Sequence to fold (343 residues):
Amino acid sequence: MKFYGIVRNIALSTVVLLTTAAHAADGSTAYTFLNITSSSKVYGLGGVNISLVDDDLGIVDQNPALLGGEMDNQILLDYMHYLGGSNFAGLRYARQAGEHGAWSAAIRYFGYGSMKETLPDGSAIGTFSPKDLAFSGAYSHDITDNLRGGIDLKMIYSSYADYTAFALSTDLGLNYYDSERDLSLSVVVANLGGQVKRFNESYDRLPFDVRLGWSQSFGTFPIRFSITAWNLTKWHLPFVETGDGSDSAEPKIKDSFSSNLFRHLVFGADLISSPNFYLGLGYNYKTRTDMSTYSRSLLSGFSLAGGIKVKNFNVGLALAQPHSGATTLMFNLSCNINDFLNK
Fold:
C-alpha cells in the first residue's frame, strides 16, 4: 500500500513540475520527460522542433534524422533547472560512420527534488528523491542527397523510492532538406515502445506521438521560421480555463476548433545572420493554456534562446516562465574535439 502513497505524491508534484494537466488531457500517464529537449536552442524555439537543420547536437533527441556526419566528434553538455526542485542534465557525443552515416550516444538524468513519502491515509513516513535515467543510441543515414533517415533507441530506468521500472523507447525520423532554398521538412514517430519492467501490476504508457515540422528562411532575410505540429495522434486537446482564479470564477472546459488547432502547433524564429551567435524566440500555445490553472504570467508560452561561440566552445542559454511562480533555465556547452586535435 505504500506504493500508492508514493505514486500520489509524485502525481501531485508532477502537476506543477511536468504540467500534468496537459498529460491528463493527452491521455499519457508516464515518461513525459522524454518530450523535454536537451537543446537550449530548441527550448527557446518553443520546446519542440523536429526540422531545425543546424550544427547543434542537441537537436538529435528531437529527430534522429537531423544527425549527420557534419557533427563528427562533437560533444554536448546540457543542464536545465526546471520547475520546482527539478534539475536535468545530460551528455551526448556524435561520430561519423562512413560516407553517408553517423551515430550518437547519450545519457540524460531527470531529478525531481525531494518529496514526502506518505501512506494512502496521508501519514508521512519519510522523504524520497524520484529520478529517471535515459540511455540512448542514435543512427542516421543519407538516403539521397536531400533525404536522410534516422532511428534513436532509448533505455529508460526509473526509481521512485523503493520502486523501479524499466522501459524501451524508439524514435523514427525522416528529414528532407533543400539547401538552395534553406527548406527543411520532417516527420517523426516519437516514443514508440513500452515498459519491460513495471513499478507494480499497473502498466504505464509512453507518450507516443506523430510530429511534422517545417523550417525555412527566405532569400537574404536573416530570420529562419519554424512550425512544428505535434500530438497528431489525437485532435481534441481540451483544457480548463479558470478565469481570474478567484473562488467565484467557474472553470470552463475549452475544446473549440481554434484552441485545438493552436495547441497542436509550436512556432519559432531564429536569427541566422552569423555562425558565431544566434537568437531565437518561440511560442507554445499548449504550454500557455496548460498553465491556465496555475496563475500563468504574461510571458507564459513564450521562450527565448541565445548562443555565442567563444573560441572553440559554443555556449547556449534559454529562458521561459510557464507560470508566475517559476522560471526555467537551460544551459548548453558544446565543442568539436576535432578543433583541438587539428591544432
Q: What stands out?
A: The helical segments are 2-17, 20-26, 40-44, 257-263, 285-290, 337-341. The first helix runs from residue 2 to 17. The mean pLDDT is 86.
